[in-house]
Structures are given as structure tokens and as C-alpha cells.
Design goal:
Radius of gyration: 35 Å
Strand content: 5-15%
Largest sheet: 6 strands, mixed, barrel
Number of strands: 20
Number of helices: 24
Structural class: alpha+beta
Strand order of the largest sheet: 3-4-9-6-8-7
Helix content: 55-70%
Number of domains: 4
Length: about 850
Amino acid sequence: MFRTTAAQLRAHVARVLASCLAIVIAVAFVVATLALNASAKAGVLQAVGAQYTASDVVVGPGEEAGEEAAAALGALAGPLAATPGVAAVSADRSTTVQVRWPERTGSTYTTVQGLGTAEALRWQRPAAGRLPTAPGEVAVSTRAGVEPGAVLSVTALTPVDAPAAEPAAEPAAEPAAEQVRVVGTVDLGGDPTAGIAPRVFATDAQVLAWGAGDVEQLRLAAADGTSAEQLLERVGALLPAGAGLSALTGAQAAQQVADAFTGDAQSLTSVLLVFGAVAVLVAGLVIANTFAVVLAQRTREMALLRCVGATRGQVGRGVLLEALVVGVLASAVGVAAGAGLAAAVAAVVARTDAPIALDVLVVPPVAVVVGLVLGTLVTVAAAAAPARAATRVAPLAALRPSAPAAVRSRAGLVRLVLGLAVLVPSTVAMALSARSGSLTPAVGAGALSFLGFLLIAQRLVPAVVALAGAPFGRLGGVPARLAAGNASRNPRRTAATATALVIGVTLTTAMVVGAASTRASAADAIEAAYPTDVVVQGPDGVGAEVLDALRGLEQVAAVAAVDDVQVVDAAGNGFPLTGVDPAAAREVVRSQQRSPVPAQGQVVLSTSAAATLGVGDGGRLQVRADPGTGEPATGPQVELVVRVAAGTEQFAVATAADVRRAAPDARPTGAWVRLREGLSAEQEGAAVDAVTDVVAGALPASDVSGVVALRSSLDQLLTTMLLIVTGLLAVAVVIALIGVGNTLALSVVERRQESGLLRALGLTRGQLRALLAWEALLVAGVAGVVGVVLGTGYGLAGTSSVLAAEAPVVLDVPWLQVAGIVVVAALAGVLASVLPARRAANTPPVAAIAD
């Protein structure tokens, strides 16, 4: 049988290539995902763990460290320095300061890291200039965009602690700004955290002067002749019991930091592998369909083998051997293609400002093994059912024409009943779980629901194709009527062809609808959290001149002043209370249903605020101004009627008049700004910059944020995710289209005599090509429509199950994109029919009939 199988493979190279292509794409996808994941981990380990590369042992607080850990760590520096085998000990500290950067409005809060107390253990490498050596000097990360020689204005945030029993006679003065010079820049390389905020480095003495507290960690260098493991053992023996300290080697500490950072990346890898599993599943369906059709065409060949002495086992083993050879070859090519794809992606990422460096491509052995084994097993498993069917071919079948097996068989009826039994209850369970926000049950029910659909697809899809075929005859004439008849004549082949495409379209539609609904729900939540376009917060108050300047901006439509005060209720619970003028607030608040404007004598509470304060809708809430001294509140008490707004994220909002009744000294501390309608994304960004410039000039410590900037970031993030996911799901769709092309090509061979007879009866070449194009359009169009219907339902259910427990869900179906998916699926099916139709049209009628 081996020689027979080899002869079959040589005689049908095109068929082998068609079967191989689907598994090549699926295996390449999985291998590329594993390779890129390994490369990203290696890059992150090298970049994020850079501070530990020069250290042999790192000592710091453990996971269960208490307040005593910091003091114990500081006291441990001396004994560790005297330990045999220790060459140097560096104590690391950091603090937070307020920095005004050159040529920038406003200031930012930045963490300053000390260079450590041991020069031998400094990991920072200057890209330009040098590292600081004295107070008044700092180095900054290269991404800060500051060159050596620049001057920064730094304000230390050291708190002033006055005894509670003896209050200071005069208010404490604000910390003075200090001018420091940048003496160097530090290139953090591919550190993915480097771009989050500018890094500042200073000497240990400078960091202490700016308010650094206890030692955060100790880094040790081993002396010559002492390994890191030996030093770790000695250091571990010196750690005080019960202090909550832990010791790791430098390599272990770097790996720990890298693992903490790549937690999300690991989740992303899992998601990608889920899509890879989908691609493999679709590839398996395509291969199973291909083998089933091929073996159906080889019925006489199998029967002749039985006639000349081949046993059932030999025939079955021959089919499985053919699948094994195809699987091994396709998997090997897929592994190579996956490595090449990963290398291409790494090369592109290396030329961009990506958050994770891919400087070195790592193709782990497990990726190669998984690719080879997975592709081979899927191919053999996909061929198992066709192989079993081939063993049932009787020798006499070689002497009579074969008819396709009827769908309305006992096995078909069992499949239909089982599919309905799975589909109906799981769909109901999915809907109920989605409504309650139960993600895990919804996912499980959704998977069972889709499995139930696959079981009934063999009955459902051909019926839909037959129903849709009736209008085709009126649209396309004779070729269209013949195409509808051909699609309905072999329901098994039609169902198998459409099912693979349905899976790809369903997944794509689900992600498109899910992303659109997530975007709408998130935008709605942001509008509730930030009830207007831009929010200005000034800790020192916002004067009338700033409000007038904001109203004078061209892009601003309305401005409302906001009072923020701290109050306490009758039970002594302290909370922030925001005061607004109702008339002005109505001009700026966009989502008044989610964030209602309070009336006089009323306070609007979020659901969480009502639960925290223990009040309900329509209840009464007594508030007084919080003196902030720890003494009981003695100011005037104001009683307000509670209105609970389920959608708002604002803790408590009342009218400005009611706020000033409770706190007569209250003054505007912020503003809500509404932008003019019709601004583009660029114009909205420019408007936010204009507001920032106005506020920063008068209020350096102010903060400007709002729904416009957040909505823009959200849209950019979701759009990027949608493009990535759509690209990944396109892999499954491409594989499904390969299956459509395979089935059409094989059906052309199967109907060779029929096509020749039609040509002999007067059907032209163009009409024959149109016949196959109409058939492909019919099957692919029906698959697209069914996939879109299923995907829309699953997308809405998935979005609801993820978001319902956190916030109100806004379901959104992008009808234009959904319609585009159907059109693309139908056109792709037509394109898949071009080569088979050309081959059928070019075959002479006499040659076709003579076969």
C-alpha cells in the first residue's frame, strides 16, 4: 500500500497542495505566535531587568512584608557589607518630585531614582554626558527629550509634620522650587516602561534631600571566587526571621520583574493561541472536506483495489498514510513559514517605537515540536472519518455508478436531534449568563451553542441554500438555475463547504460587533465619569479671570465653575462633595441621563456612594463642612434629598448654593468645559491643548483632563485591537476560502461528464464559467449571511457578559461593516471559483463525456 499511496500522491500533486495549504497557514500562525511570545519575553527580560544585570544578589521586602521590613532592610546593609564573599552593597532609594520641564507648560510628578551607594553596582549607562556626582545634578532618560546642560525646576514633595496638639502659629510655607542641571542622559534601550514617564536619576544624597525614605532594596556584588548561588545562601542565613525580607539572585529578580510586566502579554499570547486554535479547527474542517470529496471521487478506484485483493484494513491504512505524509510535509513547511513570519514581524517592530522590544528572534524548540505534531495530528484526525468511509466501499461499486449518500439517513436524523438538544438550551443559558454578566458560564454556553449549530448545519445550510437559490434563477438565467440545482443536489458537499466559511465569518462578525459595543459602552461610561468634554481641576482654586479666559477660547462653547469641598455626614463619614450651578451645568453636561444635574436641596449620588453612605433614593442626607483638623465638624448642617443615579461615576454632586450653605468659604476649584460641536479629532486635541495652556499659565499645579482626550485614546486603542483581531481572524477566513476553492475544484472534476454533456447540449464556455461562479456566490453568500447572524448574536452576548457586571452595556451593531463582511465573503467565493471554472470551460466536451 505504501507504493500505491506514493503513486497516488505523485498523480494528484495539485490535490495534495490544496490540502497542504490550509494546514500550512494554521501551523505557521501557531508557530509565529509562540516564537514572538518567546522573543518578547527575552526582550523584556533584557530591558526591564537591566537594573539587576550587574547584581549577583538582591534583597528586598517579600510578598508578605510588614512595616518593620523597611527598618530591617536599612539595618542589614552594614552586616551584609562585612559578609565574606561580598564585594559591594548598594542601597537603592527613590522619591517623587514635581518637575517643570524646559519649553513645556505646567509641571508633572516624576519619580527620581537614586544611583545607589556603590558605584560598582550602577546599571545606568550614559548615552550623552555623564552621571550626576553631586547635589544639584541629575540625569534623565533619553525619551524625556532633554539634552545635557538643560535646567529643570524641581519641587520636593516632603510633607510638613506638625504635632496635632501644638498647631503651628503660622501656616507652613509651600516648598520652594530648586534649579538643577541635567548633566547626562541615560538610554534605557528597549525597556517597555521607559516611555510611560520621564526617568530622573540623582545621587543618593540628592534623593535623600528631596525626601526619600527608607531603603527600598539592597543589591550585592559577589567577590571573585564566589558564585551568585553561594552568596545567596550566605545572605539568606543573615536575614532576620519574621521581618518579611527575601533574597534572590540577580537573574531571578530580573525574571520576576519581567514576568510581572509580561502578565498582560501572556494573556495576549493566550488570546492569539485561541485564534490559532480556531485556524487549526477550520483547517481541519477544510482537510476533512477535501479528503471526503476526493475519496468520493475515488470510489471506483477503491473498489477496484478491493477487487484485486486489497483488504479493508489496507485501504484504510493507505488513506491514513496519505494523510500522514500530507500532514508531515505541510507541518514542516508551516513551521518554516511561521519562523519566517515571526522574523518579518520582529524586523518591522525593531524599526518602530514599539512597547516591547524584539531585538532577538527566539524560536523555541517547543514551537517547532508543537507545529509539527499539531499539524500532523489534525491532518490525520481530519482524514479518519473519510478513511473509515473508504473501507466500506464494496468491490461491486467499481461496476456501477455511485450516488452521494443521502442526508436524510438515520445518522443524519440523530445528528439533527442531538444538535437541537444542544443548541436550544445552551443558547438560552448563554443569553441569561450574558444578561447577568457571568463571563465563564456565557463562554461555555456559547461554545456549546456553536457546537449545536455545527451539528445541524448539514440540514440547515442546504435548506437555506435551496431557499436562496430560487431568486437566483430570475437574476442569472439558465446558469443561475443550474447553479442552484447543483448546490442543492449534494447537500453534504454544500454543508461542508459553507461550514468552514461560516466559522470564519462568525468569529469576524462577533469581534466587529463586540468591539463596536465595547467602544459605545466605554464612551458612555467615560461620559458618566467625566460629564463634560474637558475637566479642569485647580487645587489652589480657579479664579474668575481663568474662567473668563476659557470662555473666550474659540473652540469652547460653555464653561461651568465647580466647587469641590470635603464634608461629613451625620455618622461622621467623610466624602467629597461637588457643587455646580444648575443652569451653567446644563449647558456643559452632555450625558444628563447618566449624570443628572441636581436641583436645589438635592444631592445626586452614584450607586457606590449611596451604598457607602447607607442611604437610598429619596432619603435624607445631613452634611457639614469637614474642618480637616481631626476635630468634629461644628459648621452649619445642611439636609439634602438623595437622588441615586445608577449611571454616574461622580461620588456626590449638589448645587453650588447648597455647598456654600455647608461651607461658606468654598470657592471654585475647577471647571467643566464643553467644546463646540462638529470639531474633528485633531481640532478637539488642539482645543484641549488651548485649555491646558490657559490654565497652566495661571495655575501651574492644575490638572486638565476630559472625555475628549480619553475618548480619542479609547478609540485609538479599540481601533488598533479591532485591526489586530480582524487580521488574525482573516487567517481563519483565508483557510475557509481555500476550502471553498478546494470543494469547487473537486466538484468540477466530479462533474466532468455532466459539464461535457451541458456543453454538448449548447452551453457556452462563458455560461459554464457563470454557472460555477453563481454556485460559488450562492454558497459563499449564504455562509456569509448565516455567519453574520450568528456572529452578531455571539458578539452582543460576549460584550454583555464582559461588561454587564461592571457598567451599563450599550449594544451597537455597525451595520455597514457587517454588510461589508457579507459582500467580501460572497466576492471571495466567486474569486475562488475562477480557476476551477476556467479548467472546466477549457475541457473539450467530447473529452469530458468520454471519461
